[in-house]
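Bench notes, afternoon.
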Amino acid sequence: MTNIAEMIIPETDTPGATAVKVPEFIDLILTEWASEEERAPFLAGLGDIDRRAATMGSSRFVDIPAAKKVELLTSLDSARDDKSGAGLAFARLKALTVYGYFTSKVVDQDILKTHMFFNGYQGNVPFTPVA
């Protein structure tokens, strides 16, 4: 999961998915928020990704060469509408990676520079009741 999340949003001149703790976010979602009916197909799909990696020369996704990883993920990206298996797992992993990345504190404050209260609160404006 960590390896795929980092491939979805790699480190460049901005932090990648791993640096902003997206894998930890996904783990939290799976363990604390997702129901068993949501979690089981996702985890089964991750296992299916490893099974597909086995046809590429390794028993696990993390152990296949980088070019093979790109090839596999590209094929899974076109299978995002699958209702089960590796396509489903990749679609959910991609969505959670993007969501977790762009809602992380680091990205929000240091890259997007989002301010909850724009320019702060200016309490010096007199109150004028509406007649």
